[in-house]
Design a protein that fits this description.
This protein is an alpha+beta fold. A 4-stranded antiparallel beta sheet has the order 1-2-4-3. The chain has a single domain, classed as Phage tail protein-like (STM4215-like). It starts with a helix and ends with a strand. It has 3 helices and 4 strands; from the N terminus they run H-E-E-H-H-E-E.
């Protein structure tokens, strides 16, 4: 799997949710935004030879607004729902991928996150991605 190809496809898949996915390394975002981090690790050769690789934890961080704002809590809850028009899980898992074989949202957690000096209420989605070894 190619990281840039997978990230580009995740960006496309997230478009219907209204989340903005900034390019890697930008210094400013406009919420609501989804920042796609690097995989925690890469498991190579899950099948014979170079048949399959797996990223068991690719963090996708949704940033919505000030941590203490009621509107932020409401916004992040919609992205964390298991279904619905803003559901990150439902949207990503319904997409048909060409850059990888499967994307599963394994779990999510809420936190406060700082990005470029600004604090945001965040939901960190942990993606489990499998695809062809390259």
């Amino acid at each position: 799997m190619d990281l840039e190809d997978v990230v580009a496809e995740l960006t496309t898949a997230l478009a219907p949710t209204g989340l903005r996915v900034p390019p890697w390394g930008v210094e400013r975002i406009t919420p609501p935004a989804a920042v796609i981090a690097l995989p925690e690790r890469i498991d190579y050769d899950s099948t014979y030879g170079r048949g399959s690789d797996r990223w068991p934890d690719l963090p996708l961080v949704v940033l919505v607004g000030k941590p203490e704002a009621r509107t932020s809590r409401k916004a992040v809850a919609a992205y964390a729902d298991g279904s619905g028009p803003k559901s990150v899980k439902a949207t990503l898992e319904a997409h048909t991928y060409t850059s990888c074989d499967s994307v599963r949202v394994a779990w999510a957690e809420f936190d406060n996150a700082r990005y470029a000096g600004t604090d945001y209420l965040a939901c960190i989605f942990h993606l489990d991605i499998t695809g062809k070894g390259a």
